[in-house]
Every structure is written in C-alpha cells, then in structure tokens.
Design brief:
Two copies of one chain form a homodimer. By secondary structure, chain A is α+β, with helices and mostly antiparallel strands. Chain A contains 20 helices and 17 strands. Chain A folds into three domains: 62 residues, 2-Layer Sandwich (NE0471 N-terminal domain-like); 256 residues, 4-Layer Sandwich (Double-stranded beta-helix); 165 residues, Hypothetical protein af1432, CATH 1.10.3210.10. Helices cover 39% and strands 17% of the residues of chain A. Chains A, B: This is TauD/TfdA family dioxygenase.
C-alpha cells in the first residue's frame, strides 16, 4: 500500500479513543490534530498496518478497511439501472403486501428496486383510507406538506392543483417548488373505475443521460441554469431555485426536477442564456415524451406505487370526469429507505453469520456433553418455543452460548472462566436489544443463583456443569443472590437456564437453524 | 425593452388559457409550443406589451412584470446578513412567544431573522414536554427522523450519540448523514441548572465566505469534494455524500454541512486530493473556531432557539454530569418557513391595501347617503362586533362594499347593476376563505330576499336603497327566496344585511380600520 495522506490516515484511526465503538462517531475534532502531524514509525504485516504517530498516538488498521472500494450514498446514476419501458415487458418490480410484511427478503427486494430502478409496486395493500401512510412508515417517515400528511388524487370541485382534475398530466416530478423536495412519493389506488386515468413513469435519469449523449451542451446548460419554481395559493407561497438536472461534484446525475407547470419567470440571466436554456429545456422535454421511455400501466385497487421523486417522472392519461378514480398519496424520503434497506442487508448478513456458526464450529464438541454445541443451542431454543416463551426468550435460548464460539469453550474446560455469557451478549448486542442479550449475559449467574436458592437444582447438574460451576465462582452468597434477583432480566435468565440444563439429550430431533430465522429477523427489525 | 427570447416570452404569457388564475400553474407543456415560434406582431405602449404570435396566440404583458428584478428562493448567501458575534452585542434577534402568537408583525420579524441571520430566539415558550413541536408547527411541519418526532438532549445512561452526554461539542451542523438534511432545527430549554452547558452559534456562511476570501483554492476544494457522512447504530444506517460547502450554479454559498464526528473514510479520490482536502478542511475548521465568530449565550427555561441547519453551526460547552440540563429538540424545513413568511408579508400588504382603500376612495360619497363609504363599512363592522358576531362575520360586515371601490358605486347609481357583491367577494377571495367572502357575495341577494319575506323590512329601506333594489332586480319571487334560504351562507348574509342597513348614521364615531387589522390578519392566517 502507498503511504496515504497522514491526516486522512489519522482521521480514520479506528481505536476506541478516536471512535465511539457503538456508532462509529469520531471522538476528536480535526483541528485538534497537530499542524505537523507525521508518521514516526510504520509496520505492515499480516493484513495489519500499525502506525506510531509524531504526537505519540498509536493506530492499528486492518489493511482491508483502508483499501476498501469507495462507497457512496446510492443517490447518483452510478450503480443504478437506467431503463426504458421495454425493460419491464415481463412485469413491474414489486411484491405482494402480505409477503413484503412477512419476509425480510421480499422487503429488501422491494426497497432495492426503488434504489436501482426508481420504483416498485406493492400489490394487495388494503384499499382503505390512510393505508398509504402505513406503507410509508414501513421504511421511513411521512413528510407532511401544504397538501397535508396525505393527499387525495380525485376530481375536486374547486381544484387548487391540476392533479385534482380529470385532465391528462405530462411526465413531471412533484413539489419542485420545495427545497428540500420530498424525495419519495407513494400513490395508493383505492378506486379506479374510470375510463382512462392510466399511470405512466419515465426514468428521468435515463432521459438526462440521453440528453448528455445526444447534446452535451444542452445537458450542461440544464445543470448550470438555476430555475425558479413557484407555487402560490391562499395557504402557501413556495419557491425553490434549482437546475432541472442536478449533478454531484463528479458530474454524475443526482437529481431531476422537471415540472413545466411550476416554472416561474427566469430573470437575471445573461443575454444569450434564455435562448440556450429554452432550447435545452425543449429538447429535454421532447426526450421525456419519447414513447419508448414511457412505462404505462394501470393502477388497480390495492396497488401502491413507491417511487423516487428525484429521478422518475410520473404522468397520467385523461379520464372521464364522472368516472370514479381515487388515489391517496403521501411523501417520504429516500435516506430513510436506504437506511431500512441497509438494516435488512445487515440483518441478513448477521443471520447468515449465525447460521454459519451453527453449521461450522457449532458442529464441534460441547463441553464434554453428548451433544454438539449447535445441537445444544437448537434444543434450548426448541424447548423455549415448546414452552410458549415469547420470541425474545426463544432467541436468547437459541443463542445463549454464542460466546463459546471461537474456541472459548475449550478455555473454560481448561479451568479458565472465559466469561462466555458476557462475550456472547456483547457480540449479539450489535443486532439485538437488551431483551435478548441480558438473559444471555445472566445465564451463568442464573446457574450460580439457582444452586443457592434451590438445593435440588444443584443435585441435578451434569458432571461437566458441576465442574464449570466451580470455575465460574460457585454458588452465590446471599448478598449476590439478592442482587441477582433484583435484576430486571433475572426471571428470563432463570427460565433460559432451565432450558439450557435440559438441552443436552443425545439423538433428539430439533428444527434446523433456518426455522428460527424469521423470529430472529423480527427481533432485529 | 429589448426583444427577449421568444420561448421565454411565450412561456410567461399570463393569459388564463396559459396560466391557472388561482395558483399561477401553467396549463400548457413547453413541448407543445411550435418549433418555429416567432413574434408576428408586437405593440408596446402604456406599460403594456402586446404580442401576436406566429401560431395565432395573443399575449398581453405588463412591462413591469417582464422587467421585474430577479427573485430567488432566499436560500443562498445573497441578501443575508453574514455575522460575527459582536453584531449581536445589543441582544439576540427574537421575540416573546405570546407576542409572536398574537402579532403577525412579530411573527414576520422572527421568521425574517431566521432567513437573514440564520436564527431567532423565542422566549417564554412554556417549558413543558412536546412544546417544541408547537413552535415548529407555527411555521411549518415537523420532520421526523431516527431520533423520533422530537429528541431529548440530556445525559443518558447508554448514549447512542455524543449529544446525549455532558461532553463539550464543537460547532457542527446536525444530521449531515441525511439527504435531504433537515434544514431547520429547534432547541427548546426545559431546564438548565447545570454549571456549563452554554450554547454557541457560528455563522457557517460567514466562515465559508472568510475561507473564500483568505484561501480561494481551499474554498474550491471544499465545494467540489464529495464527503461521505455516515451514522450507524442498531436502528439506522444513514449515508449522504455531499461537499462541506455547497454552492449554487452561480457559485453562491447555499449550504454548509460540517460535522467532524460523522465523516466516513474518503475513498476513491485522485492521488493528491486527500492532502488538498484535509488541508482545506482543517483551515475551514480553524475558521469556525475563531472566538470572534462564536456567539455564546445561555438558554434559560422557556427559551426556544430556531436555526438554519444548512447555515449555522451550533455548539455547547461541557457541563456537570449531574447538573440538570434538559433540552427538547426537533427538526423542520426552511421551505415552509419561507412560505409562512411570504404569507405574512402578503397579508400585511393586503391589509395595507385595504387600509389604503378606506383612507383614499373610501372617503368619497356612498351612494347618496349621508356617510362616506369608509364610514359606512366601519359602522357595519362595529355593529357586527358590538353584536358579538364571530370574527369572520365582523370581517364580512367591515368589507362588504369593497366591490364598490374603483368607481363601481357610480355605475350603480347610474342605473347599471355593477354586481358589486360579486366583485368584492372575488377580490377578497385572494386573501379570505368562503366564510368571509360568501356572505358578502350574498349581501345584495339578502336585501332582495328580506323584501320578499319581511314586508316591514322593505318599508324601512332608505330612498337610495329602494332605488338600487330596482336596479338589482327587485324583491325575489318564491322560488328564488327558497333557493337563497338553502344556501349555507344565507343566515350570515341576512345578518350582514341588517348591519349594512343600519350603518348609515351620520356623525357616528367608529373605531378606525387599524382596530380591525388583528382580526383580519387572524382570518387570513
């Protein structure tokens, strides 16, 4: 690895005095680093880079972290699927609402479609008032606007907006006069019995990319001309001045804001600019209207369309004035959707990791008992489930010995208390809340507690368990027992302990780890 | 005036087939204009430009509209007051909460401070839980985040964020890892008995402008380097890639995003860039820390600070761990605040316009009666008020003859029905809802109605009123009367009519127009 910039390297020091291990926030300020910061010594080996700094600080990096591929926020054209209508000849991306709710994999697929293709269609969302808010809240927060928390798209007697008539509407983005513009829009169909009123979507990033290809100068004009958008009625006067095509500092398309209806008078441009702007604007408008770019479909009751309002243009055909067509819509934001997707992916990776532990190391010996570690934990989980325990306690029973992985059980049997209950609870704390981790943290203490308060309990311990009891500190004294009993998770820990003790039966059939995945996923969500 | 670009000119055609008169939305699409659009004839005179277009359309412009100064959305450094701490030696901009609520002028001043200086301080906001939400809702919408609808800033046992400890926090903007970032922040002090814990504000636009002055290349580096911000805990994984200093296409400072704690590893930059970025970043950080830039003050219970999170950096000094310090905060957005301010200004202008009418034309003759038009309307308003009428009806009584302004009364007395009730209602519809305008629209009909259903009423009419009754159509027939009585505003119109009839007493003292301004302002809000 080349020597990187010293401030860059130091700013990324992962040590716990530089970064909060809980959330990765930096604990120092950039100006606190000395003006003459330099590397005093460096040592690189075994995938680790160790640096002693001129100010005495010591950093240890994993080389893989420093060399990782650049991540971005997923908001530019990079990594997205820019599409034309024909790309969806085999159907629109989406899922059934019930499957979306039940299965984290379906949820991730839907959110991922919004990120990659700019939209997804949920089917079977109950066609009831305000249900669109529940869809938005499944991945983020509702953005209230002057139209309310939600808005009704139907023919209104005295419409304040063309949307609330039966007229055709050309492809556009919503609320261009807002800054911050709502980055996501949801449209939920309650009724659609009118003739006409079909929906259309156009990939604005694709249209912008075509403009860049066919007429780079027009593209440049649209990225550099601030366009004043305005909306004015009795209750609002909203203004935003933004280019029609927003690019990031590297020139990548990041936002399309296209709404013919709300463009105010462009003033104060240099002399030739209005002509150049209008030529480019008209050329871009013509591209958005190419039939090949426009995906047309019909929303049916229960359909809920979720789309990126910084990228997709939406449209509708005219419909009969008297026909019954009623959509409810609301706005939300992409950042929360990306966060929800990242959590789902993180959870899937965590479950894969746990499943891998059960299949790998878990197949090994369990402290001299006649079952493997995986069998032991699966039995404990199954016992908790059979006893009707709440999900968090089933999870705790299933995962209670995760702290034994990576060879710690061997240490325990060699007479060293490895504090595996704490190791396991801490490791699981990345993914689960205290309702899961605290009974695990206390499950060794629960054994010591039960030996004190229930003499018959101790008599029933296996030989290995009696041995480890001694390594772990023996039965509690009265003060310890009273303190234990006062802990909020004590009862759960005692219940877990009893399943733990019974989960050592050879040749017992248990459900596989996969059986528990939905339960674990729900606790992570 | 030079001949402007034809598409620019046509796009701004104000005719009602090009623009919806209710909200100014355009009713045509830019691509619908012909490719060879040209001016066929033009005629400019008396401040009007009339254009006949090559496609046969005709546009009439007021020259002043075309020549108006450019407006922007008020979000860049342009027109703002970039400040240093000493600029507030005479006190912080703000108002008492009670005055803010009662007086639109105070409200406008507070919101205007947030726009110009980036902040304002409301005092005397009840130091109660959730009150901060009421402050946000007084000018906009609460933006919910992963921290909830609101968040508590106090020492927490297991903090997920440095904010929830007693540590000092250097100047920063909030939620840099969100895109869209919340553009406004509110902090409401419930308790502050701790030693330390003082608040600090730094004008980030000022700091950025200083960097541009002192080191233009560093400024350029910070505007063009996308910086990855990240926040990751058990419930969220948020990412935004944005430069530390955002500029608009004209290069004006538009957004500062500065938060040392949340900057992730910058990767994928060209070789020399990390060094250039860190040098610029450190120089900018040093500027934000200059003591002269930092405004320091202490929040007291009941204080609520409202500030622009795209401009101001906020900070706090450390405080005693055990001291009681409790703030509640929430986020909101600048676009709604600007809208609220525009409405207040529009309302003030409307009230000035009405007050001017009363003082000017209103001093003239009123249909041959012994009072002026202004005296007549003020008497009607005062009668309604004395009768304990609800505010909307007092307003309707006060304004019921606005349709007579601009000489229409003269026409009526010349025997032509000028439909002044409709003219007035339409004119007032820009500012008031139907509860005010509809009784006005019906107040002439109410006279015709009363003449039919109450013979004694007609006998009491003044001579002038009896004359205009004939011009207006005479008493209603039975069908007309039944239709009138069924109108939702009929009762209000009848009540208004009776005050109208009694408001013709010479030498009666009435409150001036100014007396009614707060009532009118409240109905406009």
């Amino acid at each position: 690895m080349n020597t990187p910039s010293p401030y860059w390297l130091r700013d990324n020091c992962p040590c716990p005095s530089c970064r909060d291990p809980r959330n990765g926030q930096k604990l120092f300020q950039i100006h606190e680093l000395p003006a003459d910061l330099a590397v005093a010594e460096r040592h690189e080996a075994d995938g680790r880079l160790e640096v002693l700094w001129s100010d005495g600080h010591r950093s240890v990096y994993r080389s893989q972290d420093l060399a990782a591929a650049p991540e971005d926020d997923g908001r530019t054209e990079r990594g997205k699927r820019l599409w034309e209508a024909a790309d969806f000849d085999n159907g629109l991306p989406g899922a059934d609402w019930a499957a979306y709710l039940a299965d984290p994999g379906e949820r991730a697929a839907v959110l991922s479609s919004v990120v990659r293709s700019g939209f997804a269609l949920l089917r079977g969302v109950p066609p009831a008032e305000r249900q669109v808010l529940a869809v938005a809240r499944s991945f983020g927060y509702v953005r209230e606007t002057n139209y309310g928390e939600l808005f009704d798209v139907r023919v209104e007697p005295d419409p304040t907006n063309l949307a609330f008539t039966s007229a055709a509407i050309a492809p556009h983005t919503d609320n261009p006069y807002r800054d911050p513009v709502p980055t996501l829009q949801l449209l939920h169909c309650l009724r659609n019995e009118a003739r006409g009123g079909d929906s259309g979507l156009v990939d604005g990033f694709r249209a912008a990319a075509l403009l860049r290809e066919e007429s780079p100068e027009d593209f440049a004009v649209l990225t550099r001309t601030p366009v004043p958008f305005v909306f004015r009625d009795r209750t609002a006067e909203l203004r935003a001045e933004r280019p029609l095509i927003g690019v990031d500092p590297r020139g990548r398309i990041r936002e399309v804001r296209f709404n013919n209806r709300s463009i105010d008078t462009l003033r104060g441009l240099p002399d030739a600019e209005p002509d150049a702007f209008y030529a480019a604007y008209r050329r871009f408008a013509a591209i958005t209207l190419r039939p090949g770019l426009r995906l047309t479909f019909r929303l049916r009751p229960g359909d809920c369309l979720v789309f990126d309002n910084t990228r997709l243009l939406h449209a509708r055909t005219a419909f009969e004035q008297d026909g019954h067509r009623h959509l409810q819509g609301c706005y939300a934001d992409l950042d929360s959707l990306h966060s929800a997707l990242a959590l789902l992916r993180r959870q899937a990776a965590a479950l894969d990791e746990l499943e891998g532990l059960f299949a790998g190391e878990g197949a090994g010996e369990y402290l001299g008992e006649a079952v493997t570690l995986a069998e032991h934990m699966l039995q404990a989980g199954a016992l908790a489930e059979a006893a009707g325990a709440p999900p968090h306690l089933v999870a705790a029973a299933l995962l209670h010995d995760v702290g034994h992985f990576h060879g710690s059980g061997t240490e325990l049997m060699a007479g060293r208390d490895n504090r595996h209950s704490h190791t396991g609870a801490d490791r699981l704390g990345r993914w689960f809340g205290p309702e899961v981790t605290e009974p695990i943290r206390l499950h060794v203490a629960a054994k010591r507690y039960l030996c004190t308060v229930e003499p018959a309990y101790r008599a029933g311990l296996s030989a290995a368990s009696e041995y480890t009891l001694q390594v772990q500190g023996g039965p509690m004294d009265e003060t310890e027992a009273a303190a234990f009993a006062a802990h909020p998770a004590a009862a759960d820990a005692v219940a877990l302990r009893r399943w733990d003790d019974h989960a050592k039966r050879p040749a017992t059939t248990t459900p596989p780890f996969a059986h528990f995945r939905p339960l674990l996923a729900a606790l992570m969500g």
